[in-house]
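Researcher: Here's the sequence for the chain we discussed earlier.
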Amino acid sequence: MPATYELLCLENPLLDIQAQGDEALLEKYGLKPNDAILAEEKHMGLYEELMEGRDAKLLAGGAAQNTARGAQYLLPPDSVIFIGCVGKDKYAEILVEANKKAGLKVNYRYDEEQPTGRCGVVITGHNRSMCTDLAAANCYKIEHLKENWELVEQSKAYYVGGYHLTVSVEATLALAKEAAKENKPFCLSLSAPFIPQFFKDPLDQTAPYWDYVVGNETEATSYADSHDLKTHDISAIAKHLANLPKENGKRKRIAIITQGTDPTIIAVQGESDVKTFPVHSIDKEEIVDTTGAGDAFAGGFFAGVAKGEKLETCVDMGQWLAALSLRELGPSYPFPQKTYPSS
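Model: Thanks. This is the structure I predict for it:
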């Protein structure tokens, strides 16, 4: 079957409820300034407080959905499709509209009972604390993927956000195994420190299928701690990730670790030297919002993978898109659209 989509992304579609906060608000809900957690009962008042008392902005979110919009930004129209689960409500309509504006195709499963998932994003300075109530996003079913399997067959590469390991390991593994069978790239994001920490077993189940694994330095050190690597050296962790046992021997695994304003570290399976890439510099005054900068990097990088670009170009595309995202509110990209300055 001829490929229709350059990239298929699977994860949790969320509405970001984003507002300025302060130490008192973080303390009230037991949040760290720069973190991502799943909401518990004690966090449920946060969303209303952000909406009513702090002039919150409602933005399309969910890490892999942000990455999908980012990849689409750099690819020809209708190149990327995103799959996940939402509720039948006005918040889902906001997501549909934002994706339509970005030219991103979606195929949602609509849950009859749960509302669309939401993520409270508390901004303090250049930090952002994210607290996610998955709701409908947690109701994704493998049956939906099977019913839409032609989309999987029509896609050249697959990207799954690690957050989906809290929802459907089955669906993640179905894509991973298809990628290995058909020699298509399978990309996984570590997503947040709690994934390697509390979802170690499902993460390890997917590891043999990773052609690309991407994360930031806190996710990498969390992985190192949960896997008893006895090091926080980012290069050493990247090399460990790159050289884990691998299912598809036709592709060398590539591990990518971003470090905010510090250089991006990349290890390639079987290669002794790691590669380092300085980030695109951006003045602090230009930074509007760091939410989704990592998602933007992944979007640019995997757009490059989809186009068959060399590794250095993929990294540059990721860093270029992340720098654009930092200048925007929320996990978004500038319109009218800017064009990547290919050499």
